């Protein structure tokens, strides 16, 4: 019998995703488990999953797994939808509260800022109490604070409730990818994660259209952008409570050990997860101290996290740019002006083809390396996506003015969406493959940086456009993206050499510096 690990080494994953399954990697170091066994007597029985154990989520049928994957994806979709659905309501919020157009961007920015702090609670909660009991409170909290935003009487209460909405909304965004890893083996996980990535990005891209439709309905208005999220969050919480079993292996094995002790009267049955507690010091180390250290001292983390954060931020900047281009400059109606977001979503779906198409090539590289991850095999799609991203930004810059036929700029928006998704997913995969045991900290470095970028930079969009114009502003973004184009090519050539100098990245023999 082999014990099923709580979450497999993400370096074995073949996925292309917005956030990889790395939540539990750092706590799964073999030496920690061994130290626990030494405290037990020699007659203790470590509870494991048997072969084809019906309690093991890996053995569940495909129909059940698809149903669970659907539930998990809906949770993440609602949380990501909530981030941007308020964006079309900015003029109404300005009029109602009396704030200026730049300040009116804060409800979106503060929600994204909540993603900095939320994972520090919901990640450890899922590792101690399981996926189910981290997702349900998070979604319920998102619903409560969404209703709070909908009933707010002033801008201060809107801002506060939006921040806490993001704090709770970070729960499903942070944990659903790990939960999918609990039910799918690496061979099939890549497909599930890639589709999940499209669902998560689809939230903020569909949000402007949904939000505009609600606002244009004279019987609803801007408050219903938040009432809708509240209703969906409560419904999701109820669905999860009623239909989703626990799927986190350590929690399931702990329950199995407790049941066996009760059924047999033999106190020798045990599992290490019974001793796991919330450790504040560990939370600070895992989510802040080590990620910041890696961000500042690891060249790969610095480059990749900055690149991924930039493309992620451009996605949220378009929430301000597109209404200016299509509604204010071209005179389109509020609902019609959201059409380019649907073009971006089409680009995102196209990126799915690129990312999935790279999987056979990646797996051949892994097989040739004796089963070890090959981070550099992730870089070809990144280079393709980066090129599309730059082309999309420059084409949009040249075709955004109202005298140019609109279809060209909408096609450019599709290139931006496809390029963003390809670059972002492969950046995260490269970090996971490179740092393995410390992958959670490497990805947390990216999460911290991208959330700060995406919360702050959209605030400068209108002042930037007022000063540089649409063409100048988009050309500036295109120029920055062009400066990042060499990143995948440099790493293709020198990535292995850089990894050999790292204190955190295992290379060749898989040795990891325990003092890092």
TrEMBL record:
Location of the Major facilitator superfamily (MFS) profile domain: 68-496
Source taxon at top rank: Eukaryota
Stretches that traverse the bilayer: 66-87, 99-121, 133-151, 163-183, 195-215, 227-253, 300-326, 338-358, 379-400, 406-425, 437-461, 473-494
Keywords, in A-Z order: Membrane, Transmembrane, Transmembrane helix
Gene Ontology CC entries for this record: plasma membrane
Any Pfam family the entry gives: MFS_1
Membrane topology designation: Multi-pass membrane protein
Positions of region (Disordered): 1-38
Localization, UniProt: Membrane
Record carries keyword Transmembrane: yes
Name of the featured protein: MFS general substrate transporter
């Amino acid at each position: 019998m082999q014990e099923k690990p709580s979450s497999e080494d993400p370096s074995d994953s073949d996925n292309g995703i917005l956030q990889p399954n790395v939540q539990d990697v750092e706590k799964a170091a073999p030496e920690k488990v061994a130290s626990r066994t030494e405290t037990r007597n020699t007659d203790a029985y470590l509870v494991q999953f048997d072969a084809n154990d019906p309690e093991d989520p890996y053995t569940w049928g495909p129909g059940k797994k698809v149903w669970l994957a659907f539930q998990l994806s809906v949770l993440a979709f609602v949380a990501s939808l909530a981030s941007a659905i308020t964006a079309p309501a900015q003029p109404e919020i300005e009029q109602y509260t009396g704030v200026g157009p730049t300040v009116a961007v804060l409800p979106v920015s503060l929600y994204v800022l909540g993603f900095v702090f939320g994972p520090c609670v919901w990640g450890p909660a899922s590792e101690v109490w399981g996926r189910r009991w981290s997702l349900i409170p998070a979604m319920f909290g998102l619903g409560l604070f969404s209703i709070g935003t909908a009933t707010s009487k002033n801008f201060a209460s809107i801002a506060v409730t939006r921040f806490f909405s993001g704090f709770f909304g970070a729960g499903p965004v942070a944990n659903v990818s790990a939960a999918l890893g609990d039910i799918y083996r690496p061979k099939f996980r890549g497909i599930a994660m890639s589709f999940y990535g499209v669902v998560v990005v689809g939230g903020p891209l569909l949000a402007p259209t949904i939000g505009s439709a609600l606002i244009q309905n004279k019987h609803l208005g801007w408050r219903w952008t938040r009432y809708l999220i509240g209703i969906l969050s409560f419904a999701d919480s109820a669905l999860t409570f009623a239909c989703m079993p626990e799927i986190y292996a350590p929690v399931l094995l702990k329950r199995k050990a407790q049941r066996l002790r009760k059924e047999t009267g033999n106190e020798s049955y045990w599992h290490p997860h019974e001793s796991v507690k919330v450790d504040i010091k560990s939370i600070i180390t895992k989510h802040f101290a080590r990620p910041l250290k890696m961000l500042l001292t690891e060249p790969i983390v610095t480059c990749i996290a900055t690149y991924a954060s930039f493309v992620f931020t451009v996605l949220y900047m378009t929430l301000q740019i597109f209404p200016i281009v299509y509604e204010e400059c071209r005179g389109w109606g509020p609902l019609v002006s959201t059409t380019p977001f649907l073009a971006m979503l089409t680009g995102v779906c196209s990126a799915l083809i690129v990312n999935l198409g790279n999987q056979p090539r990646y797996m051949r590289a892994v097989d040739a390396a004796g089963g070890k991850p090959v981070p550099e095999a992730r870089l070809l799609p990144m280079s393709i996506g980066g090129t599309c991203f730059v082309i999309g930004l420059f084409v949009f810059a040249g075709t955004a003015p109202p005298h140019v036929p609109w279809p060209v700029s909408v096609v450019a928006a599709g290139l931006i969406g496809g390029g963003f998704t390809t670059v972002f997913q492969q950046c995260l995969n490269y970090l996971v493959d490179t740092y393995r045991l410390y992958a959670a900290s490497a990805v947390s470095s990216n999460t911290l940086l991208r959330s700060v970028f995406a919360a702050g930079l959209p605030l400068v969009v209108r002042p930037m456009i007022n000063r540089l114009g649409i063409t100048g502003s988009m050309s500036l973004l295109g120029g920055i993206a062009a400066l990042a184009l060499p990143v995948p090519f440099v790493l293709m050539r020198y990535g292995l050499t850089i990894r050999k100098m790292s204190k955190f990245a295992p290379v060749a023999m898989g040795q990891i510096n325990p003092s890092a």
